[in-house]
Design goal:
single chain; 128 residues; alpha/beta; 2,3-Dihydroxybiphenyl 1,2-Dioxygenase, domain 1; 2 domains; four-stranded mixed β-sheet; 2 helices; 16% helix; 37% strand; globular; Glyoxylase I family protein; Fosfomycin_Res_Enzymes; Glyas_Fos-R_dOase_dom; metal-binding; VOC_core
Length: 128
C-alpha cells in the first residue's frame, strides 16, 4: 500500500453560516460544492485549499462540544502554510481574530502561531 496524499479533512461546526463565513471569507478557501442532505438535516460544504487539498465542513443538529483542547487524544490541530507569518497575523488581527504570539519551531527554525475557528478548533499558521 502507498498513500499518495491527504484527500480531505472533515470539520463539524456548531453554527454552519458562521463557520462557512470564517473558512470562506476570512481564510479564503474556495467553495467547490455545497449540498443539503435532507435525511440528516445537514449541510456539507467542500472547500478547496490552494487547489491541492480539501476541507469538508459539516453541520449537524446539536453536535457535542469538543471534550478538551489540543492535548486530548485525537487530531491536535489544523495547520495551514503561509508565505509571511507577520502579514497573516496582521490580516487576522484586522478581522478581530486574536492569535497567540509568534513562536519559532526549534527543529526547523520556522515561525508559527495559533488561533481558533468559531468552534474553538485550534488552527496553526506555519511559515513556509
Amino acid at each position: 500500500m502507498k498513500l499518495t496524499g491527504i484527500h480531505h479533512i472533515a470539520i463539524i461546526c456548531s453554527n454552519y453560516e458562521k463557520s462557512k463565513d470564517f473558512y470562506v471569507s476570512v481564510l479564503g478557501l474556495t467553495p467547490i460544492r455545497e449540498v443539503y442532505r435532507e435525511e440528516r438535516n445537514s449541510f456539507k460544504l467542500d472547500l478547496a485549499v490552494n487547489g491541492h487539498y480539501q476541507i469538508e465542513l459539516f453541520s449537524f443538529q446539536h453536535p457535542p462540544e469538543r471534550p478538551s483542547y489540543p492535548e486530548a487524544a485525537g487530531l491536535r490541530h489544523l495547520a495551514f502554510e503561509v508565505e509571511d507569518i507577520e502579514a497573516a497575523v496582521d490580516y487576522l488581527s484586522s478581522r478581530q481574530i486574536r492569535t497567540e504570539p509568534i513562536r519559532v519551531d526549534p527543529f526547523t527554525n520556522k515561525r508559527f502561531t495559533f488561533f481558533e475557528d468559531p468552534d474553538h478548533l485550534p488552527i496553526e499558521f506555519y511559515e513556509k
